[in-house]
Every structure is written in C-alpha cells, then in structure tokens.
Design brief:
376 residues, alpha/beta, Rossmann fold, 6-stranded parallel β-sheet, 12 strands, 42% helix, globular
Length: 376
Amino acid sequence: MSISVAILEPYYGGSHASFVDAIVAHSRLDVTVATLPARKWSWRMRGAAIWFARDGADWMYREGDRARPVDAILCNDMLAGADLRALLPKPLRNVPIACYFHENQLTYPLSPDQRRDFQYGMTNITTALSADAVWFNSDFHRSDFLTAAAELLRKMPDFVPAGAIAEIENKSNVIPPPVSVDVDLSRPPRSSQRPITILWPHRWEYDKNPEPFFEALLALAAHDASFRLVLLGEQFRTAPPAFAQAWGRLKPHIVHAGFLEHRSDYVAMVAECDLVVSTAVQENFGIGVVEAILAGCQPLLPNRLAYPEVIPEAFHDVCLYDADDDLLPRLTQLIDGAGWLDETLADRLRKSMSDRYATPHAVSRFDDAIESLVAR
C-alpha cells in the first residue's frame, strides 16, 4: 500500500499553489490536499490550524475511513504547526509532520510604513520545534532563518529555551521546490533583428526592490536604447511608487504589464522573453526566475540572497552582478550586443538547472524525504 501524505496549505495561491499542484500531479505517493484561499495571511497564521484540525478535517483519514489515518502531514510556514499538533485527534497526534519553509516572518522585508510583529516569528519557531522535519527551499534561507530565530530568542528577558535553535537545525534539510514550465526546449533561436525582451516576473512589492530596476531602464530609455519590457508577477492593493513613476516614460517599451491568471498564458509570455532580471532584497529561492530560465531566458541577478546557490557556479560571472550600480552597464552591454546574451549559454544553463529543479526530479526528492520520515 502506498504511503499517504496530507498536504495542508493555508494560503493556496501563487508559488504556494504551484508547489502543491506539482506534488499532486507528479508524486508517487497517495496525496490528499486541504487548502484555504490566499488572502489575509496574518489570519491564516493565527487560525488555519484550528480550521484544519476541526471544521476542515476531511483530510485526516484515507478515503474517510477513521481506522486508517494518513501516514504523514506536510504543512508550511504559514500554518501554526504547534497549534495543529495540539488540536489533532488522538489517532493522529503521532503522525509525523514535516514543515516546508517557503518564507519566514523573521527576515521578510517590510515596507517603510510597517513594523515587525515578532509574534509571527515566534509562531515560525514553535512550528519548527513541533515538526518532525523542517525543510527549506534553499540553504541561504535555512541559515537566514536559524540566525534570525536565535537573535529573536536572545531578546527574551528570561527563561530563554536552551538548545531550541540546535534542535531545529538538527532536523532541518534543504529540498528545492519543484518548478514546472511546459515549454519546448528546442524553441527557435532569438532573432537578432528583434530588440531584447526584458522580463520582470516578481511580485510588485517592496522586497523585490524595483527602484534600481526602473532607474536602469529609465536611463536606457533616455539614451534611446532599443528594448522591450514584460512586467509580470502578482499585484496587490499598494504597489511601490516606482511602478507608477516609471510608467509613462517606459510605456513605448512595454509589451505587457500585469498578472496573468491562466498558467498557459503566463508561460507563453515568459517564453517570448530573452533576459530575466532581478534586483530583489528578499529571495529565498526565486521560482519566477527559475521558471524563466527553464523557459529559455538568460538571467541577470544580484550576487546575493539565494541566487548564487540557485545558479550553478560555472555561470556566475555571466549571470550575476555585484551591486545595483552594476546593473545599468551590464544591461547596456547586452542591448548593444557587447555582452553575453547567448542562446547556447541559455540552453546549457536551463538544461543544467532542469536536472535539479524541474518538477519530476524535485517531486521525487520530496517523495523520498516523506518515505524516510514515515520509516523512522
């Protein structure tokens, strides 16, 4: 009989939804999924565990048979795992729980008008302590979280829990998320007669640091550089002012701007781009960037965060830049044809990264990890 795993997703949208869908589509395990809509993340962290343990409890047993509990639970950082553990009915309290950290509330950058509420960070810590396994999407994220968690615990005035960080570290591991891009890897070469198409696939939020990106593009436009621009990624009620400020002057270059609801439309648009750019100050993995690379884009990324880990070292000189001030000259070189925009390089890079991040390979690693967890 196949091992059964219940995936609990309190914020089913964006990359979280893609993660769940990829596992459901490709896992060799018996997968059950329980989700809540992707809205009001702070309330999800406060209350989703209560819902999953009580009202939304259909996921707990195979085919509804109360004599056959699931073998494992996979939740994530937006679920209060300790609350879930405490509220589960007795037959499920010993079922192993793995928590996957897409992000965390200790290091997530805030907008200028926000103050950090450390209660969410404490929830991340107690979730990690209550889980049997803690998985991160990159080693950068793992190290960043452990460092920030230790700093938060040191703020406690007394009765600081000894050994808590070491306990989390000892049961933590890195498993990159599955990245799914249904694109023909033999797409025709880019026409040298067509301007380079630059892709921004990130959320329209402060942590993606759009200011240096638009400053560089505005400087290119001021010098009559020939390029096209595609702006994707989710938009929320309040976007950084840089988007509106740059809009009028960049409008002649914009091919598309806005979130595409249908996955096929999104992938098709990404596949038309040549260069994916990031200026992020927060990136624990970068699914949008990896999707673009697997679709054939060459990346130009800051040499920080998870990017040096995600991009194979052999491609660092070409694909990474050291500081925001380096972005404009690198873009200028690429647009003028003096840089390294190279179909052969992009093809080699995506084939190299496909072996590690493409959905079938990545989901197989999750299956292996869950099977190992259940076998303990």
